[in-house]
Design brief:
This protein is of the alpha/beta class. Helices cover 31% and strands 23% of the residues. Bound molecules: adenosine-5'-triphosphate and magnesium ion. Adenosine-5'-triphosphate binds next to strand 2 and helix 2.
């Protein structure tokens, strides 16, 4: 069974409807040079990704730096250009929207950035920052805005004294709470969280992660949760996707992927997780070969250059993301997956 067929189904095992479908998504960037701006190369940042999110999912997206996680998230919110493929929100295309449709997508799909310092205007009050979306989307007027802003700020841990303070007066963790309030006040369906806690220290990180968990349930949200931190992904997500060089190489229920990784890249990635038991020796595997570049990548499997089990077919033919093993939701793009 190919992943394309899998994503077209209307329901999952627990009968949650599909909220987001990404079909064969490609995001390419041209690198140009010279005064004629001649195209020198193409960066294939996202190179044929298929995935689906059911309502209520926390879908964790992992992979090493530069594999295309942010670009995929930005394409879903319309900030990265889609070169080919489709993105559907509740079955309706959200690619290339303009006017009122783009405005409505901007409300329904919200992005929380990694850096809480640059994502909020330091000279705006919290009230302005959180309330501006209500005005823009015509969701409230006058004193209703202040009321709703205060209610949302209270929900994320502030009080009335914070309402007219400036963003620059807050710590990183507090700023992420403000970003969250600003997104939630618009009652979105989908939150894309791009490394939302990696700029924070560990104790603040835990508070924000727990707040996110509560809020997801309370507001009936779906998360695309991007992180390179496997511990955070495991704690937050019910399903995960592993990206490598613009491709989704493995996807499945978090427990299946963590306990029975099928793709050699996922196995290497998971071997870097420290063991809880100090007596268990670390079996960390290090990747050989150069870090990959998405500029004009070679044909075949994207992992072939660094794969310890590479065979001739891997360098010629790109493997499809297909079902392997016993769990119905476990899909891997490898000619020789490890299935136990
Ligand atoms: N606007 C752009 N123009 C050209 N190349 C870009 C652009 N945006 C991203 N890229 C390239 O696309 C690739 C994927 O980048 P992306 O930021 O999506 O990776 P990432 O997985 O989020 O990495 P990280 O974990 O470091 O945040 C990288 O090689 C990056 O340099
Ligand atoms: Mg990124």
């Amino acid at each position: 069974m190919r992943y394309n067929n899998h994503v077209n189904r209307k329901t999952n095992q627990s009968h949650n409807p599909i909220l987001l479908t990404v079909e064969d998504l490609h995001v390419y960037f041209s690198i140009r040079e010279g005064w004629l701006s001649r195209q020198r190369a193409t960066v294939k940042a996202v190179n044929g990704v298929n995935l689906s999110l059911q309502q209520g999912d926390v879908f964790g997206l992992v992979g090493e730096s530069g594999c295309g996680k942010t670009t995929l998230g930005r394409a879903i919110v319309g900030l990265s250009p889609v070169s080919h493929g489709q993105i559907l929100l509740k079955g309706r295309s959200i690619v290339g929207l303009t006017g009122q449709d783009a405005h409505e997508r901007a409300r329904q799909v919200q992005l929380i950035f990694q850096d809480p310092y640059s994502s909020l205007h330091p000279r705006k009050t919290v009230c302005d920052l959180v309330g501006v979306g209500l005005k823009l989307h015509g969701l409230a007027n006058g004193y209703e805005i202040d009321e709703q802003v205060l209610a949302m700020l209270k929900r994320v841990g502030f009080n009335i004294d914070h309402l007219y303070r400036y963003a620059h007066e807050f710590s990183g963790g507090q700023r992420q709470r403000i970003s969250l309030a600003r997104a939630l006040i618009l009652r979105p369906k989908l939150l894309i969280l791009d490394e939302p806690t990696s700029a924070l220290d560990v104790s603040v990180q835990a508070q924000i992660l727990n707040l996110l968990k509560e809020i997801r349930q309370e507001f009936n949200l779906t998360f695309l949760f991007i992180s390179h931190d496997l511990g955070v992904i495991r704690y937050m997500s019910n399903r995960i996707g592993v990206m490598y060089l613009g491709h989704l190489v493995e996807t499945g229920a978090t427990s299946d992927v963590f306990e029975h990784p099928q793709h050699p890249y996922t196995q290497v990635l998971l071997s870097s997780l420290p063991s809880i038991d100090p007596d268990t020796p670390s079996n960390r595997t290090l990747l050989e070969g150069d870090p990959p570049t998405p500029i004009d990548p070679p044909p075949g499997c994207p992992f072939a250059q660094r794969c310890p089990g590479v065979k001739p077919i891997c360098r010629e033919q790109a493997p499809e993301l297909i079902h392997h093993g016993n769990s119905p939701d476990h899909f891997t793009a490898c000619h020789f997956p490890h299935v136990d």
